[in-house]
Design a protein that fits this description.
98 residues; 79% helix
Length: 98
Amino acid sequence: MILLVERVSLLSEFKKLINKRQKIIGKLIRSERRAKDLTQQQISDTLGVSQPSFIQKIEAGKRHLDVSELWGLCQILEIPFVEMAEKIDALLKDENSG
């Protein structure tokens, strides 16, 4: 029973960490989108997504973003994928050290 409680606790902490990271990545995407003077609707239209809530959820850290979706966003934002990955890496390292 104690082992199960420990696993549940670890899983809960892992989910919190993932959610925190998703929010950091979402803020970066929002910042890059705004720097390009693009709306959530424009991004959604370009991605072929019918609702801007897709981007809203990503930017709010409420939706997981897979690699292919991130690559597509990089294309729209005209940011090399590697550059975006480096920015994400730097932000997450800052988050871990602080």
